[in-house]
Amino acid sequence: MKIERLRHLRGPNVYLSRPAVVARLRLGELTGVETSDVTGFTERLLRTLPGLAEHHCAAGAPGGFVSRLRGGTYFGHVTEHVSLELSQLIGRDVSFGRTVSAGEPGCYDLIVECPVDESPVSRVPGELLREAVDLVLSVIDGRTGKPVLSELAARAEREAAGPSTRSIIAAARRRGIPVERYDDLSLLRLGWGNRRRLAWAAMTDQTSGVGIDIAGDKQVTRRLLTEAGVPMPEGGAARTLENALAWLKRLGGPVVVKPRRGSQGEHVALNLCTPEQVEAAFRAAGEDVIVERQLDGRDYRVLVVAGEVVAAAERIAAHVVGDGRSTIDELVERVNADPRRGVGHSRVLTRVTPVPALLERQNLTARSVPAAGRRVWLADTGNLSTGATSHDVTDDVHPEVKRLCLRVAAQLGLDIAGIDLRLPGIGEPAPPVEAGSEVRAGVIEVNAMPGLRMHLAPVRGRSRDVGDAIVRAMYPAGSDGRIPTVAITGTNGKTTVARMTAHLLADSGLRVGLTTTDDVRVDGRVIFRADATGPLSAQMVLGDPGVQAAVLETARGGLLNRGLGYDWSDVGVLTNITADHLGQDGLATIEDLAHVKALVAERVRDGGTLVLNADDPWVRTMVDRPRVRADRKRVVWFGLDAEQPVVVEHLARGGTAYLLDDGWVLQATGARRTALLRVGDVPGAYGGAAPHVLANALAAMAAARALGAGQEAVSRRVAEFDPTVENAGRGTLFRLGDVSVFVDYAHNPAALAATLRTLHRLWGADRCVAALTLPGDRRDDLIAACAQVVADAVTRVVLYDDEDLRGRTPGEVSALAEREMRARRPGLSSVRAGDCREAVTEALLIARPGDVVLVVYEKLAPVLALLAELGAVPAAEAAPVLPGRGPGAVQSPARSLLGKERVPVPGYHG
């Protein structure tokens, strides 16, 4: 039994609305074996992992999984539950798991939930699944024993978002603001497009870089604040030991020595009174230090966010209290046993590590046994990173102290600042600075990107939601950080609908981001060329700060292999669902395909719009799916048949649909009909000869109108859409001498049938030649179905295999298609070519004056380059040559350029 591959689903997916990992598990020799077939397996497994006794499984109650074990279940199912239990043991609070067949005996997909904020590049999920496989195998072999998970637990904790980051994520999600974490960093992207904001813990994209640099240099901070009349302890910088000792002599003890550019309390030494102590602190701090008078009083941190004091805490340095029996080491061990304490910043408190020099100043060592009640200080500073604890005092802050802290943050230009103060009490005003008088209380430090843990989980007092304060500062007035978003899926027409929708939205002045099968575009310009229909491409658009609206083509592959690239859309469009990609990724039937496509419908936000094709029976079923919740969305139908019962009923209830009637494109709402434009004015529809293009236009208009595009603007922009420029390769027509060339990306039976029907309407059934390639990753029966469609529609065809064989051998696909075509139409004339260039050239040579050559491609660029080389003219510049109208005496550019003559083709009598 082994895991063959893993894939991470980052966002909502076909299994659940949260991230998950999918493992392809092959059972090997355990295929067909169940737990009841292995003597003692259940008992040994429960001894190894007692927590499995609480797993519900299908029974819906504790003990359900144990019942399945004893009754007999397959080992893929067991591995799923073991991985969930191991996750719990290392602190990953996940509960969802599912095991489904991968389409062949002994092969399963294990779907296991991941924590929503876990790093998207984490190796922990995969390691846990492999650990689960090893554990199950060891139990089968008769071995038991507690699994060793300490390394995995430590890695999971290191990679997890810290408390400060988690608080910002949680606050954003409560507001409905989309939030993405970058890798295993604390860097967050909140919102989309031009409403996108960045936060890195308690620092935002609005935090002043100058302010950060000032706060990072304690001497510059001292000077700036002192000159502004802020009470600060007397002292200054020292880069030599002589300077440091001079400050001690001038100030008298006790003094504080701290690194000039230090952070988190590292190498800060307090209560220094002798030259020897100052020298040791100077060396430890890196010999570039601040020496200042130590102020009496209590240690406070005040958090300022966007001109508001949002939290305050008293910080208590790390210490233990003696009991008269235990050593300091033993007392520290007890303190560190608190589950709230961890390494670094991963938990709300940090583990305590005693400072030997501080113990020495207290005449103690780690092995000393302090008297009962004696407080032993383990760190000089009140930083949580050195093990300190905090008490919330937000409600006690004196107004004058608040004003002081706001002044300090403003002086440094920081939107978020942690102000450290030494005061007799936070409820008393800090005394003003008096010339010639010693400062006894005031500000001791300013922190950019301050830690939030002390406010989120104080040991005493109320927790403060400082993450929410930061999010409110980034998104005032209740903004959710979203931009208008359209998601488009289906089998055919997705790219055309996406491009036309983006074209319509751009008229309103919006800078539109667009993802399609061919590329990613921002404001009409290509920024990335690839099949861009997955979540990474969606994130590219949604993360672009210049984008004001997003149109996202969303395909099957991305949905299954990576999940969605967004949580919710405003508008979801389903064009149609027909046979394609069956046999891939576990999709066996059209129903399976519909289930995957339904995710786009399910993730339309409440109050959003779902645009559905009324002519497609599978799309019509979307409104009946439980997770679509059509009652909470606005459904808009589109279609070519105005008499579809679902449309008639929908309009009778006052709904909206986009339809055709008597040569017009209509918007129908209830009994009202509004003509938008004539069918003949829809670009690329060839006067209605391409009804599938009309359907695409209806879908795009419905989507644009749902996002607020005006009726007149939509009508005008549809007519202005230039398919040859904005939708190249989707039904694009060229003139090449006395022959027309029709270029289309039709790769499945439905698409080929629609395209060939269009050509028959324009040129007639006997005027079509096809240069055809079919994708090798389709199942044989789908390739055969495509071949049969073509054989029914043409008498002359040139077949070629694309460069990307997709797992097939050279010539395999074209041979299969040719065999099917000849079986379907014995009189068919077929030629097999080596590549696209040869196929198109051969098809042009076969073509007669007045014919049309259909070019079905895999990569568009080589086709366009060849046609340009041959002198082809886009149909926008020359009308198509229709039967009986072709200038038969005109020599074909293909013939003249290549130096070949047209030759009679056996079986063709055109």
TrEMBL record:
Residues 222-475 form the ATP-grasp domain. It holds the Pfam family RimK. In the C-terminal section; belongs to the MurCDEF family. The keyword Calcium does not apply. Gene3D superfamilies: ATP-grasp fold, A domain (3.30.1490.20), ATP-grasp fold, B domain (3.30.470.20), Mur ligase, C-terminal domain (3.90.190.20), Mur-like, catalytic domain (3.40.1190.10). Homodimer. It is an enzyme of class 6 (ligase). One of its GO terms (molecular function) is cyanophycin synthetase activity (L-arginine-adding). Keywords: ATP-binding, Ligase, Nucleotide-binding. The keyword Oxidoreductase does not apply. SMART domains: GARS_A (SM01209). It catalyses: [L-4-(L-arginin-2-N-yl)aspartate](n)-L-aspartate + L-arginine + ATP = [L-4-(L-arginin-2-N-yl)aspartate](n+1) + ADP + phosphate + H(+); [L-4-(L-arginin-2-N-yl)aspartate](n) + L-aspartate + ATP = [L-4-(L-arginin-2-N-yl)aspartate](n)-L-aspartate + ADP + phosphate + H(+). Its EC number is 6.3.2.29, 6.3.2.30. This is Cyanophycin synthetase. InterPro entries: ATP-grasp, ATP-grasp_RimK-type, ATP_grasp_subdomain_1, Cya_phycin_syn, Cyanophycin_syn_N, Folylpolyglutamate_synth_CS, Mur-like_cat_sf, Mur_ligase_C. Catalyzes the ATP-dependent polymerization of arginine and aspartate to multi-L-arginyl-poly-L-aspartic acid (cyanophycin; a water-insoluble reserve polymer).
